[in-house]
Amino acid sequence: MVENRPFLTFLTHAFLILGFLVVALPVYVAITASTHDISTLMSGPVPLLPGSHFIENYSTILTSASAAHGLPNYSHMALNSLVMALVITAGKIAISILSAFAIVYFRFPFRQLAFWIIFVTLMLPVEVRIMPTYKIVADLGMLNSWAGLTVPLIASATATFLFRQFFMTVPDELLEAARVDGAGPLKFFRDILLPLSRTNIGALCVILFIYGWVQYLWPLLVTTDPGYYTLMMGMKRMVTVQDGVIEWHLVMAGSVLAMLPPILVVVFMQRLFIRGLTETEK
Amino acid sequence: MAGIHIAEVSKVYAGGVKAVNSVSIDITDGEFIVLVGPSGCGKSTLLRMVAGLETISGGQVKIADRVVNNVEPADRDIAMVFQNYALYPHMTVYNNLAYGLKNRGTPKAEIDARVTEAARMLEITQYLDRKPRALSGGQRQRVAMGRAIVRKPAAFLFDEPLSNLDAKLRVSMRGEIKRLQRRLGTTSIYVTHDQLEAMTLADRLVVLNGGRIEQIGAPLEVYHAPASTFVASFIGSPAMNLVKGELHGDKLAIGPAMVGLNGFAPTSGTVTVGVRAEDIRIARADEEALPFRLEYAEELGAQRLIHGTVGDQQITAAVSPEIELAPDMQIAFDASRLHFFSVDTGKRLPGNLPAEAKLAPIEPVV
Which CATH class is domain A66-278? Predict the structure, then answer.
């Protein structure tokens, strides 16, 4: 677009900066808070300039802080979160791409019904379904296990729906050409559909990894064994102290560290991510 | 190499729509058959039934004397070229060509040899490492044909392969397809709605309308002796003039005018008279003529098409561009060049074969 309207340029930038400030300020406050000691934070409003306790706070949270709250090591919880996020991501993609493949490419009774049932679950957030889900998981004896942490979160209507929409844009002639070329359904899936879905899978990986990483309510419900605690639960537990001072400086340091993995995923997958959302390879 | 025998094949869709209605075609080994007709006439459905992409509701398809009604497309020993090329977008040209062979467990060395040969034949050797996205329409079309050639199938099936190309490229690719088919001698079925493509490519034409065969024959047979008014108006450009005429003995009345037929009248009474635009000429002063009221003219360079009316009936004539135009002109034609069709059925009336067509036998229409 060729435009030369100084006022508009000014206005758009003003909006952009305003939006940026609104979104970024809490994150900025968290970062500055994580560099002060506890007495500074308790004595008044959070200072807007970074303090001098950066190294001290971060080394404390990484080594000893969580033990004081009866929590496992920070790195242990981070590993738990990572495993959970990765298993959920991989599981969701595997399940949803296969069910979308079944729905789009096979004719079987109740196919549409199956799709609509999957689709309807989109209308209900996890929190609404959490009681029945908990009951099932408890009855299956999956409390305090990796399976209990991940399996109920793996079913994904969103991803199934996205893959279905993508598969429906793949021209029928491609399937027909593959059939004439002697590719059976699974070969077609592996050789044609999967490579074509690469960018979509990349984008979904990013979104689903973050989804898995920030899970809080579900892990809180199904795990009582500290060995399965995830970062989000750990941070929350550090805030709910009975008597005494909440160690905000450490909580903030822990939170800032917890933001890093999703940021890294977005940064490294960004190329794939953006291509997946905008470009279709046809 | 093999013949294809299509015997009383029908396709009935759910809801009872008959897309193809009891069609029989015998295709001999190495023959180039073109299925032509307007959209919705069932030509693509018929081709897809031969390919195995569509189930056959009735009748039998035989490829190389083997009934293939329930055989998977991959096992029918056919290769298909699609309208939108259907190249695998994520594979290089080489892999696009090799994919079908790989799936059949062909040894690597042989795949390599066949792909190289096909690429050389189609002059796409320098593009083998590219993805289809980086190719032009014509090059993609070649790759699609290459994918068919490397398989060395019993038959090629073409589903309107040129309709996505621009006019100029279409003409040159048309020539190439013909040349290639001659060279390989592979039985081919080619579907198109373009009558020019059909005329130029076919050994034999199959004109379809509403799921039925209107006529089967060599291009010139069909052109010179169309079996029905449908074929007459579909094959040839501009379309054949079809007007209502009255036969009185050896005289033909069109509107207010009356011309003698020199003994070519096949019957008497009301008929549909067909005459090709190029068979109409400006009348000499001493012959029986039809009064022609000019409406407009189209310049084609070598020819000029004049559109107008005789009485109240539309007529298009192709005349030399040197002829002077006037609002009222006199036109004439040789009676031997006329086609007579039944008004009721649209079928060609027996006993009126124009001179050229008498040379060749006419395929009976089922």
Answer: mainly alpha
